[in-house]
Amino acid sequence: MKAFLFGPLRLEDDQQRPLPLPPTADSRTLLAYLLLYADQLHGRSHLAALLKPDESEEKARRALTQALWHVRRILPADAIHTPADAVQLDAAHIQRDITAFDTLMADVLTADQLTPVQATQLAQGIALYRADLLLDLYDDWVYLPREQRRERYLHGLELLAGWEKQNGRFSAALNYILTLTQADPLRESAHQEAMRLYAVLDRPQAARQHYEQFRSYLHTEMGLPPNPQTQQLAAVLNAAAKLSDPETAVYLPTAAPAIPYALSAAAPMPLIGRELERNQLVAQLNQLTQGQGGLIFLSGVPGVGKTRLLQELARDAEWRGLATAWGGGQELSGQPPFALFQEAVRPLLTPLRWQQLQTMLDEYWLNLAATLLGLEAGHSYGEMADHDCLEAFSRLLIALGQLRPLLLILDDVQWADRASLEALVYLSHRLRQRPLLIILAFRSAEARAETAVWQTLDTLDAAGLRLRLRLEPLTSEATAEFVTQGLGLRQHAPLFSQRLFAETEGLPLLLLESLRLLHDKGVLYRDEQGEWHTPLRPCHRRLRRIAPVTQSIGHDRFAGTTLATIAAHRSRNIGVSGRFRARRAIFMASSRRRSAPNRAIGCAEFARPAAIFTRNSRSLPL
Q: Residue 481 — pLDDT band, cuts 50, 70, 90?
């Protein structure tokens, strides 16, 4: 006999022919309860109260006896046991869907990460959930087990959608997410995910339609609009559709801060002017989900936005279910071997991950890799065989990628240690068909000045790269958009933006710090209505107080006094894990350009952007 508890209670024989249920409501309720809690002893008093909570115990027991008689008639012989004053259902000869569901879901839902076997197991469990548990019963006792199974089912759908994304099967992921939205139509995160998946599949019209249907449903059922993040996501996807750019912003955009981006230390600026580069990198992520890794070079001058682009790429990778790790070089002498990797790899080696690695790697290689990462005491790198060290490190990274496709971002490679450089060369020939993608970000001029670093990069380039990108400063149009979004303007301020572009030549870091400096000094301020202005008279007063300076940065005409002011008033670091130090990048570039007095200007020149708008106004709106 087979018993189906998901949906209305059903019984079938071994030939899948339907069997009749007990004739009375009490007997059907009793059968459902005994099937749900099979192989457990239940006191008769408890069962009687379950059936007739408002009746006397005598009447309730008589009702139980009658219901039990009906149940016995439709179950296999000896299925009901009545020891002493109790009742028990022996389910040895009854196949129950809820038992199979609970067994399949038990270990999978708590897994740190799905394996192919677990994903198959989870899909089998999901398939058993035809509808909510005992859908036609409304007794109080059924609500808790019903909700427990429902939550397991919904969580299982989310896990399977993530598994399919991780493997690049976005259509399958969308199917699971749409099932989730049907099962729980108020789960807004699922609707957001559906919109993102439609965008990735280049179905912008479907994304817009899904949003409109959800918005209409919320208005009808709750009298509420979607939350601001969902509205923002819809707007971003609509804008991307107009650009025919299916890869743009498939993740949930960061909620806009209460204060403008340019003045907020909490929220990063939106990525502006990097659509082409980001799309090229996202295409490599899609290859990674198919098990194809490799090396990518990302170069550019200080302040051009390498770290910001990589931050956005890390979000893209995380949305796809990929593992991400971030490390970087340090401008320090005496770095330990493999310092470039240590910051990135150590957080990946959780106790659970270490147990998984123990089943994949020989103990010798695993212990050697742990020693190299400083996780275990042992000999130093120079005291061990170089080949074994590099082999152990390579095996560890490849195994981590096999457990979960891994995006490894290594920033400031111009400061890499010797062992890390050797490891990169050793790894480079093994990455093509491995789920490990390594991005090397560096400053070209400084990397070229380090012979070992530049020779390594040249060797890696000759071995074959997945992609080579060089970031250029923002265009004047992108600079205008940077100012508009950074200050939260309702429309572009072309003259002000042009002036900033002329002063910074589109370096995002200098644009950001310039806006902050002008605001801190009162040159740029908001009125009571929230409109931005540049006051003319305060600028003139500052002109008389500030001495001219003749320093510049890179190709940018920028004041040394301005840089000093930034250094004095800005202690924030731009980037991830404190590696991208704004002040240091500015001063290093500045010192290299002191021989260009013809392009140098004073802080007074930079502090008068208001003068370019009008000749007579006292307070000039942007």
A: very high
Q: Which amino acid is at 340?
A: L
The CATH class, in words, for 275-470 is alpha beta
Fold classified for 2-93: Arc Repressor Mutant, subunit A (1.10.10)
What pLDDT, in 10s, does the model give residues 362-409? 999 999 998 888 766 555 555 455 889 999 999 999 999 999 999 999
pLDDT of residue 549: 42
Alpha helix locations (H) across 332-385? 339-345, 351-358, 363-372
- Eight-class DSSP state of 268: P
The answer to whether 589 and 553 are in contact (CB under 8 A) is yes
pLDDT in tens, 329-365: 888 767 888 899 988 999 999 888 899 999 999 999 9
Axis crossing angle, helix 508-520 with helix 476-487, rounded to the nearest 10: 40
Q: Start-end ranges of CATH 3.40.50.300 in the chain?
A: 275-470
Token pair for residue 314? 């890390």
CA angle 88, 91, 96 (to 5 degrees): 125
DSSP state of 300: -
Sequence letter at residue 6: F
Closest by CA position to 371, among listed 382, 434, 350: 382
Indicate where the chain has its CATH 1.10.10.10 domain(s): 2-93
pLDDT at 267 over 90: no
Q: Reduce the DSSP state of residue 565 to 3 states and report it.
A: helix
SS3 state at 19: strand
The predicted structure's pLDDT at residue 258: 62
DSSP character for 255?
P
Helix or strand or coil: residue 305?
coil
Task: Report the alpha-carbon distance of residue 251 to residue 234 in Å, rounded.
Answer: 11
Which tokens belong to 103? 């067994």
DSSP string computed for 83-118 = -TTEEEE--TT-EEHHHHHHHHHHTGGG-SS--HHH
- Examine the pLDDT at 584 and tell me if it is beyond 60: no
**Which DSSP category does 611 fall into?**
G
> Can you give the pLDDT at residue 387?
87
Could you report how far apart the first and last alpha carbons of the chain are, in Å? Answer: 78
pLDDT at 419 over 70: yes
Digit-coded pLDDT (tens) for 189-212: 999 999 999 999 989 999 999 999
CA angle 412, 324, 253 (to 5 degrees): 95
CB atoms within 10 A of CB 291: 16
